[in-house]
Amino acid sequence: MKFNKICVLGLGYIGLPTASTFATHGLRVVGVDVNPLVLATLRKGEIHIHEPGLHAALEAALKTGNLTINESPVEADAFIIAVPTPFYNDKFGEHKDQKYKLADMRAVTSATQAIVPVLRKGNLVVLESTSPPRTTIDLLIPILEKSGLKAGVDFQLAYSPERVLPGQILRELIENARVIGGVTSESAEAGRDLYAIFVKGQIVITDATTAEMVKLMENTYRDINIAIANEFSRLAERFGVDAWEAIKIASLHPRVKILNPGPGVGGHCISVDPWFLVESAPDLSTLISAARRVNDSQPHFALELVRKAIGDLHGRKIAALGLAFKPDVDDLRESPAAEVVHLLQEEGAIVKAFEPFRLEGLPGITCVNTLEEAVRDADCIVLLVHHAQFVALSPKDLAKKSPTRLLVDMRNAWNPAQWQAAGFKLFRLGVGKN
Ligand code: SAJ
Which residues line ligand 1 (CB under 6 A)? Predict the structure, then answer.
């Protein structure tokens, strides 16, 4: 299939890089968003999200004249839906007394509805948003067929998940392998023709539901692997073992690769996607939901470690280093570090947080602008996120900035021998032999 003009619905972390990349590869692209603030920002050539290289990509795309920004879709050869699929905050499912989260598919539904009036014979529609299995077939087809056209016959329909890592989106969009699942093999091939315009990685073709499941399986596998690392860290504390040392040794086995424990799992992908499987089949997803609960409860274990280090938390001054959900990004969504800070505050601790990538921090958390300010009068310093600049701190640096010699390291970022030799007392998550 040949493409001259496409419409990308949703200009966020995925839609905007995708729209810009298609435009710089010669397609005419209409980028659509329902948020007037986003439209106004983009029309000025500015961006509303932080992603390395994205501003330059948008500028390049606008400069070609190929990219235009619009509040609703227009006739085109193909439509790509890249809108968010968050959770309901106020609705839950329940299975055998266990609650699970429910995906809010309203943005996908309304984006799909918006395509109906402009859908024409011969078009291709692709859903990229992470979605519960069977969404393409059970949700999209009935809406799109209201146009009077038949999916897989009059128009092509495919699911192709985004699988890029925040911080490296523009590069991974082009280089990563891409999976495209069609409602028919013709649909999958049409999807392949579209993405082949810029994708250099392998393009794998399958059916739509398999492609939906592949995306969920990848992130669920990682979530479960981290959950077992977190559970190992709890066991190690009980048995007087250093979990980091044990995991490193176990992972020397050629068929074992255990991920790292930490204060929990955050971000908008790994802590979210497994619930899409649980929601779709709670009776069959007991391991997946148990892993989710292990990871969601990990901030409480982080809190207990700080209590072990400092005793009663009430009125104690704590410097929290890092609030992001993972190192060297500014993304605070679902961040376990922020959760640990809230728990410390609930116990009466006075916390000053320093997040170098987001100085303004989060509501309800006192954030300071420099490391010095955070640690100046602290009774205890807690490392929550292993940003490179924190890992690089030396005992000498910190001793000059702070009176405290009490440290809690949730990430195994600091070498215990080195810090202990300099007079610090270091408590590490997952270590039962401090
Ligand atoms: N984490 C640990 N221990 C580890 C690794 C990670 O506690 O050993 C924590 C991190 O601190 C963080 C969370 O897990 O809070 C998730 O971080 P991540 O780097 O594992 O993943 P994301 O959410 O940034 O990106 C993932 C990626 N998926 C996989 O690697 C399978 C990415 O490729 C996907 O595109 C992305 O989810 C997505 O959009 O789904």
Answer: 163-166, 218-219, 222, 226, 259-260, 262, 265-267, 269-270, 325-326, 336
